[in-house]
Amino acid sequence: GGRGHQAFKGAEEIRLDPPSVFDPSDYSSIAFLSACSEKRQDGTLEYFTKAAIFLAFCLYLEGYPMKWFDETDIFFCDPSSSDSPEIIPASWIAACLLYHIQAMDINYFGVTESFPNLSCTEEFATSVYPTISLINHSCNPNVSVQCTDKGVAFIHALQPLRAGSEILLSYKLPFYYNSTQDRRASLQSQYYFNCECVACVNDWSKSSLGGPERLLCHNCMKVFVESKEGCPVCNSHEAVWMLRQFRDEVIPNLKRFLLKDICSLEELKYATTGADSVLPFVQQPSSIYYQWKDLYIDILGSIYDNRTIEPWAADDISESS
């Protein structure tokens, strides 16, 4: 009996496939995070294995029940076997810790602290979240993660999302900071996959953002290059007018908001509303969209980031820089 949890179908049966809906309050969902053991170098695996054994022994010393020294009678048993031992063998606990360490290594989020008087941030912790850590990568993300001073994290949409569409984060910097070759090499080195996102497949980079915007005319549904004449097919100026208003009014206002230490929720709403009015017209890759996105993320950070204002902290950071 019993409800069980996400790693199990009931109270006892092991679930081999992820559930269709994850419970963000259930940490056991990390059982479905990738560990990439088979792709790691032997030296890295040895280092992680030693760390897992050490942590298991620490648990043993603190009284966590486990069979540490003589495991010969159950060493080759499957941990998911129904004929499980009364006391869990230390090797099983170490194996779980080893998986957890490897999953943490490629699925964590950095928790940072900002220093407003120095205009810099410093990472002081890492965290894994039951559902957010399951989100896949794109160099052209549609959501952003914000870790708060309360120890929780949430995702914010960076563009309108249709029901059923995949939510995608950027594990590294977005595509306009590096070439496709450099992005793929960096992701392969740390996360062990070859990126096939839309930005990498189409070889987007900073140079992709040069020139006039490409706009979708909502009157005739044709894509055209920004010009003062409007859509060359139907002569509609709606898309051009919306873009001009966004560029001349919304973007400067967002920059003005960020001159303060902390932005308001009303200003965050203004940033969202402004984007909602123009994004349906703008075609990717878009220079104005990414300009807005960076400002929007900065506004989020100014509201929710961990902040340190103690004078000693500023002195320590400046001395170590």
The arrangement of helices and strands along the chain is HHEEEEEEHHEEHHHEH
C-alpha end-to-end distance: 57 Å
Oligomer: single chain
Number of extended strands: 9
Keywords: Cytoplasm, Methyltransferase, Nucleus, S-adenosyl-L-methionine, Transferase
Subcellular location: Cytoplasm; Nucleus
Main location: cytoplasm
GO cellular component, one term: cytoplasm
Structure description:
The protein is of the alpha/beta class and 321 residues long. The protein has three domains: 6-107, no CATH class; 135-210, Beta-clip-like (Beta Complex); 212-320, no CATH class. The chain is built from eight helices and nine strands. The protein has helices at 42-61, 90-107, 180-191, 198-201, 238-257, 265-278, 287-304, 311-320; strands spanning 109-115, 120-127, 136-137, 143-147, 153-157, 168-169, 214-216, 223-225, 306-307. The protein has a three-stranded mixed sheet with strand order 2-1-9, with no helix packed on it. The protein has a two-stranded parallel sheet with strand order 3-6. The longest helix is centred in the N-terminal third of the chain and has 20 residues, at 42-61. The chain is elongated.
What is this structure, in a nutshell?
The protein is α/β, with parallel strands linked by helices. It has helices at 42-61, 90-107, 180-191, 198-201, 238-257, 265-278, 287-304, 311-320, and strands spanning 109-115, 120-127, 136-137, 143-147, 153-157, 168-169, 214-216, 223-225, 306-307.
